[in-house]
Amino acid sequence: MLQVRGATHIVGDRDGWSLFADSNNWTQGKEFLVGDVHVFNYEEHVHSVMQVNSTAYEDCIKDPYISLFASGSDSVVLSEVGRSWYICGVGDHCENGQKLSINVAP
């Protein structure tokens, strides 16, 4: 069976997933499609990636979460159309802006 994958996007480009990267500004002008892969690069044990719902994203609520990634180089396949939300689950990083909201098109 043939498997087709979409584009690979490095979240934050060379800055990676960090407190200092403007992740939401990073999405400007980009189109994300089902099958694309987002790669979150960051220093392991310093950050994490939590996929959350919209309320948790807005209010930086860490529990419950949908998925948790903490390897320092995490690949997330965009598998559903619609909004996806990600936050850093370490300390007050989310409250300080380390979060990402994307819209996935078919």
From TrEMBL:
It is found in: Membrane. Residues 7-106 form the Phytocyanin domain. Keywords: Copper, Disulfide bond, Electron transport, Glycoprotein, Membrane, Metal-binding, Signal, Transmembrane, Transmembrane helix, Transport. GO terms for molecular function: electron transfer activity; metal ion binding. It is a single-pass type I membrane protein. Pfam families: Cu_bind_like. This is Phytocyanin domain-containing protein. InterPro entries: Cupredoxin (IPR008972), Phytocyanin-like (IPR039391), Phytocyanin_dom (IPR003245). The lineage of its organism: Eukaryota, Viridiplantae, Streptophyta, Embryophyta, Tracheophyta. GO terms for biological process: response to symbiotic fungus. GO terms for cellular component: plasma membrane. CDD domains: Phytocyanin.
